[in-house]
Amino acid sequence: MKDGDLTVNSTFSFIGTGNMGGAILKAACGIIDPDSIYIADSDRAKALTLGSELGCNVMEGNLQAVESADFVILCVKPQIIGTVLDEIAPVLRKREADGNPAVLVSIAAGVSISKMRSHIGAKQPIVRVMPNTPALIGKGLMIIAGDDSVRENKIAALEQMLSCCGETMRLSENLMDQATTASSCSPAFVYLFIEALADAGVYTGLTRENAEKMAASAVLGAASMVLETGMKPGELKDMVSSPNGSTIRGVASLEKSGFRGAVIKAFLAAYERNTEMGK
User: Fold this and answer.
1) Same domain, 262 and 165
2) Would residue 163 count as lying in a domain?
3) Same domain for 142 and 52?
4) For residues 6 and 160, is the Cβ–Cβ distance under 8 A?
5) Which of 127, 142, 171 is the last residue of a domain?
6) For residue 109, what is the DSSP state?
7) In this structure, are 131 and 239 located in the same domain?
């Protein structure tokens, strides 16, 4: 990175290199020096392979990964984050006492800052980040929530690193469960919709390849219209729906089948699960 960039002198440790953690790690290596990145994983063979591929430093374990990095990024599942926090807590507490605290960054859904801090027992700077799978191709939305324990320059440096995965958005932590559902769970709902459109296309005679291309392109283009025109989804829908035309007949069929209600129920079910995981 250029001199003067906020992350040029920052170091990052990644604990966990699964699908999402690995994606963020690989993207980060494209904009910052891999030698300033440290990784640890319960599957050490996988960590060694990644380290060799990317040029990152592979640590012996989680404790070593936490000892000196400016940012410690926890890319572990919500079910085990408490165990990992208990393990690294002594090192984090010592660094905080020495006046050199690491910024702890978690991508675990549903686990609040206060819940994480209860494992550490210190005024640990903590940030929650909720990515979504489009981050795998640099098209993600990385939602960031911190509290008063984290300095603005640290948040800005983190945003700069995460920009390798797409856009970033700051949000109050009390909205993170809702945001997780709207941003991180919803791609799965969209994939189902694309698959259903493609299935219908195949049923009516299109090839699978063409049907999937048409459905995915339509969703991509429609989403871009919402984001780039500033128009409401309802307005854009009306632009496509000619009086007594084929589109409005299809819309009416979706409404009759309870399409909107089904989507809202799916959202609320996922949101409820997000809140459960934080307890």
Assistant:
1) no
2) yes
3) yes
4) yes
5) 171
6) T
7) no
3 — pLDDT class (breaks 50, 70, 90): very low
Place of tokens 């995915």: 216
Specify whether the CB–CB gap between 162 and 134 falls below 8 A: no
- Within a domain: 7: no
Domain count, the chain: 2
Rounded CA-CA distance 61/122 in Å is 22
What is the mean pLDDT of the segment spanning 230-259? 97
Q: Is the pTM of this model over 0.85?
A: yes
The DSSP element (H or E) to which 208 belongs, if any, is: helix 208-229
Distance CA 63, CA 179 (A): 31
Pairing of strands 12-15, 57-58: unpaired
Both 123 and 231 in a single domain? Answer: no
Quote the crossing angle between the two packed helices 233-240 and 208-229, to the nearest 10°. Answer: 130
User: Domain range spanning residue 46?
Assistant: 12-171
pLDDT in tens, 150-198: 999 999 999 999 999 999 999 999 999 999 999 999 999 999 999 999 9
AA letter at 139 = K
Torsion of CA 182, 143, 140, 187, to 10 degrees: -20
Say if 3 falls within a structural domain: no
121: CATH: 3.40.50.720
Query: What are the C-alpha distances in Å from 124 to residues 64, 92, 150, 190, 276?
Result: 18, 8, 9, 37, 24
Instruction: List, edge to edge, every strand of the sheet that includes 166-170.
Output: 57-58, 37-40, 12-15, 71-74, 103-106, 126-130, 140-146, 166-170
Cα–Cα distance, 222 to 35 (Å, whole number): 41
Any domain includes 1? no
Do 33 and 164 have their domain in common? yes
Only one residue has tokens 């392109």, namely: 217
Beta carbons of 40 and 13 less than 8 angstroms apart: yes
